[in-house]
């Protein structure tokens, strides 16, 4: 009787250990640019066999086969790469396509798309566990978290926060503005600013009168992003022309994926925006374009973390 019970215990232990003994997937496709960046930051890019169109950083990721835009994945394109795993975020899709990919035997690992630092941690530690780099993932997250905190030390010299308005697009004269509970809202606050667009959530059209009434000190936009890119003459447009931002010519531009991707370079984004919002705390002034580094910032931070712990 005792032998039977011991055997059951051993079998139960093997069941628990089985997932941990599974090898990390060798063929991964990514449906999100921040997840792609994390894979590179962990030094596991050899596992990637395909990426989506938001995976533009590092530049060599663009040389991989494409599976379409993250919200409009091509099932045929994805499955043709014979992946074992698809890594995606909550806003990847469409759902119908994801079901087709799952039905074909591909395992989907889904991560949070929330505009929070907690989501960044979840993506980093989750992907690290997937590729059997849990320790390195924890170190990477700690380095990323520290880079944000280090950037925010510049805010100690700030007396009054600036009011910032993020413009997603201004096609046909209709401005789409970033409200509350958006990545734009969070990154503005992380950089010590106040979102000038309040009272609504998400990205929505805003009338010229409301734009003028909001009185933003700074207009924030992406330097690229296809149809989302905003022309640099936006400060002369109705509504915007009647703001302090137009009077002081304060237009800040940053790479869209760097600013809103919430990946391992988020510390770089926060620092760049703080310098732009508060030029007196650094050497930048006037119109600012934040540039990204040649190597993933997360990877640089991981190297520094590894050296510190040697």
- Major pleated sheet: 7 strands, mixed
Secondary structural class: alpha/beta
Q: Give the terminus-to-terminus CA distance.
A: 51 Å
Outline the low-pLDDT stretches.
Answer: 14-20, 225-229, 283-310
Number of strands: 13
Q: Kindly provide the radius of gyration, computed on alpha-carbon positions and rounded to a whole number of angstroms.
A: 22 Å
How helical, in percent, are the residues? Answer: 40-55%
Percentage of residues in DSSP E strands: 15-25%
The helix/strand series, from N terminus to C terminus, equals HEHEEEHEHEHHEEHEEHEHEHHEH
What is the overall pLDDT average?
87
Q: What form results from the Cα inertia axes? A: globular
Can you count the helices? 12
3D architecture notes:
There is one protein chain. With 310 residues, this protein is α/β, with parallel strands linked by helices. 40% of the residues lie in helices and 15% in strands. The protein has helices spanning 2-21, 33-41, 75-79, 95-103, 117-130, 134-152, 183-190, 208-214, 244-247, 256-260, 266-277, 297-308; strands at 28-30, 48-51, 68-69, 72-73, 85-89, 107-111, 163-169, 176-178, 194-195, 203-205, 218-222, 251-254, 288-290. The strands form three sheets. Strands 7, 8, 9, 10, 11, 12 and 13 form a seven-stranded mixed β-sheet that branches. A four-stranded parallel β-sheet has the order 2-1-5-6, sandwiched between helices. Strands 3-4 form a two-stranded antiparallel sheet. Helix 5 packs antiparallel against helix 6 (134-152). It is globular and about 60 Å long. Mean pLDDT is 87; it is low at 14-20, 225-229 and 283-310.
């Amino acid at each position: 009787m005792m032998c039977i019970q011991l055997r059951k215990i051993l079998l139960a232990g093997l069941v628990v250990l089985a997932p941990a003994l599974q090898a990390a997937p060798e063929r991964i496709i990514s449906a999100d640019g921040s997840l792609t960046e994390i894979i590179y930051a962990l030094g596991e890019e050899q596992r990637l066999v395909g990426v989506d169109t938001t995976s533009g950083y590092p530049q060599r990721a663009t040389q991989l086969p494409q599976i379409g835009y993250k919200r409009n994945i091509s099932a045929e394109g994805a499955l043709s790469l014979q992946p074992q795993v698809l890594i995606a975020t909550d806003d990847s899709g469409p759902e119908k396509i994801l079901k087709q990919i799952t039905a074909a035997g591909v395992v989907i690992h889904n991560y949070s798309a929330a505009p929070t630092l907690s989501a960044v941690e979840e993506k980093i530690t989750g992907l690290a566990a997937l590729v059997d780099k849990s320790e390195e993932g924890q170190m990477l997250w700690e380095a990323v978290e520290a880079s944000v905190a280090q950037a925010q030390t510049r805010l100690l010299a700030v007396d009054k926060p600036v009011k910032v308005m993020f413009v997603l697009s201004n096609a046909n004269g209709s401005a789409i503005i970033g409200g509350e509970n958006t990545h734009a809202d969070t990154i503005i606050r992380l950089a010590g600013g106040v979102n000038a667009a309040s009272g609504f959530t998400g990205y929505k059209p805003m009338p010229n009168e409301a734009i003028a009434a909001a009185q933003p000190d700074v207009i924030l936009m992406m330097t690229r992003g296809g149809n989302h890119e905003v022309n640099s003459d936006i400060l002369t447009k109705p509504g915007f022309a009647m703001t302090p931002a137009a009077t002081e010519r304060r237009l800040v531009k940053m790479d869209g994926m760097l600013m809103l991707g919430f990946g391992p370079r988020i510390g770089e984004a926060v620092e760049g925006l703080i310098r732009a919002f508060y030029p007196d705390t650094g050497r930048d002034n006037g119109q600012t374009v934040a540039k990204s580094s040649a190597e993933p910032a997360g990877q640089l931070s991981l190297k520094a973390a590894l050296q510190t712990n040697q």
